[in-house]
Amino acid sequence: MSKVLPGGRRLFDDLCLALAGGEQIAIRGESGVGKSTLLNIVAGLDTADAGEVAVAGKSMAGLEEAERTAMRRDEIGFVFQAFHVLPHLDLAQNVAFPLILQQKPRAAALARAGELLGAVGLGDRRRSYPKELSGGELQRVAIARALVHEPALILADEPTGNLDPDTAAQIMALLGRAVRDRGAAMLLVTHSPTAAATADRQLLLTAQGLIAADG
């Protein structure tokens, strides 16, 4: 896979990566090397200039936008660095949103959302709104939402960047359990050596592609 920015700068070239179910891979690298762009390409939010992405055995090549959206809805859980919670929905509604998009029964979707909020330590805040939460709490909401529909692939962009060390450890443990228990794969982008150390493999993203990283 290759990606060139509009101005002509090549972010990376000849990048090849495969994740198995139940595997966690952490990608590290300097700011600006293209870590978040790589996640966006894998999620179908951006496109590579060469190469192909397949998720759960389904190639994104040639898919229409509606088909890519459906694949993200059903197969991918994305923890964005900027949270992307919906301000007009309460926390339970935010977390349940992927299930609502899948047309699951509303009561069941909200009940499942309540379970996930409890797992990230926000079970008593399900009726709160995003404006009432701190940055760390919003990150936990984003993680609960990413897990609620039991995706095949979890993409996490700096999931502990806004959390204190104790909460960060709890969140990484939660993500790890989701990967192990459900056989999902997780691709984690992080600057945190502590978060990266929880993965099965650590890779360094460079302009030449991915190389094994020192622990």
Please tell me about this protein's structure.
By secondary structure, the chain is α/β, with parallel strands linked by helices. It has a single domain (3-86, 136-212), classed as P-loop containing nucleotide triphosphate hydrolases (Rossmann fold), CATH 3.40.50. It is 37% helix and 18% strand. It has seven helices and ten strands. A six-stranded mixed sheet has the order 6-7-8-3-9-10, sandwiched between helices. The longest helix has 18 residues, at 165-182. The protein is globular, with a radius of gyration of 17 Å.
The CATH C-level name is: Alpha Beta
Alpha carbon gyration radius? 17 Å
Classify the fold: give the CATH topology.
Rossmann fold
**What coarse outline follows from CA principal-axis ratios?**
globular
Give the overall average pLDDT. Answer: 89
Helix-strand makeup class: alpha/beta
How much β-strand is present in the residues? 15-25%
Instruction: Output the strand order for the largest sheet.
Output: 6-7-8-3-9-10
CATH architecture heading: 3-Layer(aba) Sandwich
Can you describe this structure in just a few lines?
With 215 residues, the protein is α/β, with parallel strands linked by helices.
Descriptive terms for the model:
single chain, 215 residues, alpha/beta, Rossmann fold, 6-stranded mixed β-sheet, two-stranded antiparallel sheet, 10 strands, globular
Task: Record the SSE blueprint.
Layout (H helix, E strand, L loop, with lengths): L2 E2 L5 E3 L11 E5 L6 H8 L11 E2 L2 E2 L5 H11 E4 L11 H11 L4 H14 L15 H13 L5 E5 L7 H18 L2 E5 L3 H4 L4 E6 L2 E4 L3
Parallel strand pairs: 3-8, 3-9, 6-7, 7-8
Antiparallel strand pairs: 1-2, 4-5, 9-10
Helix pairs in contact: 3-4, 3-5, 4-5, 5-6
